[in-house]
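W.,

You were right to be curious about this one. When I first looked at the sequence I had no strong expectations either way, so I just let the prediction run and decided to look at it fresh. Below is the sequence, 135 residues in total, followed by the output.
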Amino acid sequence: MDLDRALRISAAGMAAQSTRLRVVAENLANRDSTGEAPGADPYRRRTVAFANRLDRAMGVETVGVSRIGTQAGEFPTRYDPGHPAADARGYVKTPNVDSLVEVMDMREAQRGYSANLSVLETTRGMLTRAIEALR
């Protein structure tokens, strides 16, 4: 039944966006984390990659999380000679997490989740009306 497929596709989209929201929350929670020793690397921003997946049982493609990785690149530094993780010059490596980027990712994931939820609710309403019509 096509309505059943729509429900499953929407649920897969909601699950993928939930994972994305969880990773964004983790990034924001760790944006001020530093290494524990001088020169140690701080928290590295995590990223989510999506991929299409063929659901053979339904015969349709759905979205899923293909991997959760980390963002490459240098860590920003700040001058804080009194910090336990400061190097010999007094600089501390800080996470490569940009709050503005994380908030934008969060809003995009929220919109994707809401769109899938709307499809799910609409499909459920159509199923309910079809069942009522058959009575």
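Here's what jumped out at me. The helical segments are 2-29, 99-134. And, maybe more interesting for your project: Residues 99-134 form the longest helix (36 residues).

Coffee later to discuss?

I.
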